[in-house]
Amino acid sequence: MLITTLSIVILIFSVIIHEVSHGYVADMLGDPTPRLQGRLTLNPLRHIDPLGSIIVPLMTSLLANFTFGWAKPVIYNPYNLKNKRQGECLIALAGPLSNLIIAFVFGTIIRFVFAGLMTPFIEISMYIVIINIILAIFNLIPLPPLDGSKILFSLLPQQYGRLRMIFESYSLVFMLIVVFFLWQVVSPIIPFIFSIFTGFSL
After folding, report:
1. Which of 70, 79, 100, 96 is CA-nearest to residue 26?
2. Is residue 168 annotated as part of the catalytic site, yes or no?
3. Comparing C-alpha atoms, which of 139, 138, 141, 126 is closest to residue 195?
4. Which pLDDT does position 202 carry in this prediction?
5. Which of 91, 86, 92, 69 is nearest to 16 (CA)?
6. How far apart are CA 32 and CA 106, in angstroms?
């Protein structure tokens, strides 16, 4: 139960940082919407989604032996951005990048602090690294509604805009495909990145 609680707490704060990063970059690029909505804060109450931040993480941890969830998405107005296409790409990239930075920082701590003893701090740090790598890789998959799809469509010519609208209307279908099928193909990269960041194998 302690491991389940720990995983959920790490996940919640990791997805919050993910969403705040989206908001900060949007604000930096000219759109004040996340700031005006009070989303540029680490206060969990501003970000927690009852379903995605509590119920789903608890159910997946208890029933599926992994922790999955999300925070309330940060909303921004692309028409306020100084450069709409470039801005959208940078905003989408900010979330996964923030998770990779967290994983890298705690992975570096593990690499240089670990001295053969599995202390509680090192064990918690390992969970932080793993969960944040999973969040980054998962969100970079180029299918709606994930960040990877926003990055992809921001790089494609504008004539693909209608195709994007069609794809995004089937976001729920794509999420099911990712969770139940595609993730099995993508997930083997996680131990590889973990070993690069920490110097240890999963």
Report:
1. 79
2. no
3. 126
4. 78
5. 69
6. 31
36: left (phi over 0), alpha (psi -120 to 50) or beta: alpha
Cα distance between residue 183 and residue 146, in whole Å: 13
- DSSP annotation string for 35-77: HHTT-SS--GGGT--IIIIIIHHHHHHHHSSS-----PPPP--
pLDDT in single tens digits along all 202 residues of the chain: 666 788 989 999 999 999 999 999 999 999 999 999 999 999 999 999 998 888 888 887 877 677 788 899 999 999 999 898 899 999 999 999 999 999 999 999 998 887 667 788 889 999 999 999 999 999 999 999 999 999 999 988 888 778 888 888 988 888 888 877 878 888 899 999 999 999 988 7
Name the nearest CA neighbour of 150 among 130, 134, 171, 132: 171
Paired tokens of 95: 């979330």
Residues 53, 71: contact at Cβ < 8 Å?
Answer: yes
DSSP codes, 20-39: HHHHHHHHHTT--HHHHTT-
| Domain residue spans of the chain | 2-198
